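Figure 6 in text form: structure in, sequence out.
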């Protein structure tokens, strides 16, 4: 009925949507948006195309749901940066959390990277309305730490960009990392090795020199 409240999803409906989104994450992260089809997603989800389209309007709807879900997860570590905390501790924690995400969510990282490489045609409003305000807010925190002499002078936006680049490399280029490190160093310990190196790189660079 027009104007009536939308009914909440049942448990079964929520579970089916989760199955579809997980299957779509596999397909989109491997093939990109343009190279993926609803038929591929339906097959990966183990259901018919008409059944899938009962839960989502189409490929764009599935992709948008994944990106929104991903960005909420992706931005959580930055949201947790506490302006009242010790700057070195907060930045170290941020680096650690971003590496943990590279380890635990490689498909999500590739999905986001594919979207950005295409010019963010489906996610620009999200970037403008959610990502930019949060980055600006935390950049202001880092700038205040720098002005107060608690860390070295630094461009806070480029600091955040560089942390993104160095941590997400371990998700987006994982095959390359493991191949170059070889069997002795390319196991799960590579993330701890990366964390120690990046902490040294950033924290030494941000330390105030007397």
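Output sequence:
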């Amino acid at each position: 009925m027009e104007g009536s409240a939308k009914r909440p999803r049942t448990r079964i409906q929520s579970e089916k949507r989760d199955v579809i989104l997980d299957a779509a994450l596999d397909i989109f992260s491997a093939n990109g948006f343009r190279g993926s089809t609803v038929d591929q997603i339906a097959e990966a989800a183990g259901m018919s195309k008409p059944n899938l389209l009962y839960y989502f309007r189409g490929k764009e709807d599935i992709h948008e749901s994944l990106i929104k879900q991903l960005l909420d997860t992706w931005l959580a570590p930055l949201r947790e940066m506490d302006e009242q905390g010790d700057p070195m501790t907060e930045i170290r924690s941020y680096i650690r959390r971003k590496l943990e995400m590279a380890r635990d969510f490689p498909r999500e990282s590739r999905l986001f990277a594919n979207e950005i490489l295409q010019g963010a045609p489906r996610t620009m409003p999200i970037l403008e309305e959610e990502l930019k305000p949060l980055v600006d807010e935390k950049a202001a925190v880092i700038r205040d730490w720098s002005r107060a002499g608690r860390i070295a002078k630094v461009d806070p936006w480029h600091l955040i960009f560089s942390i993104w680049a160095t941590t997400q490399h371990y998700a987006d280029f994982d095959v390359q990392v493991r191949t170059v490190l070889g069997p002795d160093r390319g196991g799960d310990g590579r993330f701890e090795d990366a964390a120690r190196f990046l902490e040294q790189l950033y924290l030494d660079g941000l330390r105030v020199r007397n």
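Caption detail: Residues 1-5 have pLDDT under 50 and may be disordered.
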